[in-house]
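Justification of computing resources. Each target in the renewal requires a structure prediction run like the one illustrated here; the chain below, 120 residues long, is used simply to show the kind of job we budget for.
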Amino acid sequence: MPHSLFRYIAAIEHHQQSGNTDTTISCCTTADFSYSDDDVDVIRKETEYDFADGVQIKYVVEYDDVAINDNVCPECWINYQVMVDPFDTIKPSKKSFYNRCQQQFWLKTMMMADSDNHHD
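Resulting C-alpha cells:
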C-alpha cells in the first residue's frame, strides 16, 4: 500500500514550526550552502530527515536574503525528495514549491483530503 509523501512533509513542517521533533523523526542534519550572487546573499540549506520507519527525506530551501514586503509571499525554492524508501511505497518521490504560501496551501488541501478519506 503506497504512503503519501504528504505525511512526511507535514511532519517536517511541524518540526520546523514548533522546534519539536515528532516521534516519527529520529534525526535530522542540516548543511548550509549559502552563497553570494551579484551582491545578493542567497540562503541555501539542505536538511536530511531520518524517520523511525527507515525513510530518509532531503529538504532543500533556497531564497534571496533581501527586504520583503509583508503583503507579498516571497519567492523561494522548496524541494523535498525521498532519498531512502525501504519498501518503495512513497508516492510521489519528490515535491517542489516556489514559495511558502504554495506549500502551506498544498498542506492544507492534503490535510483536508486525508481527513475526508478517514471519515468514509
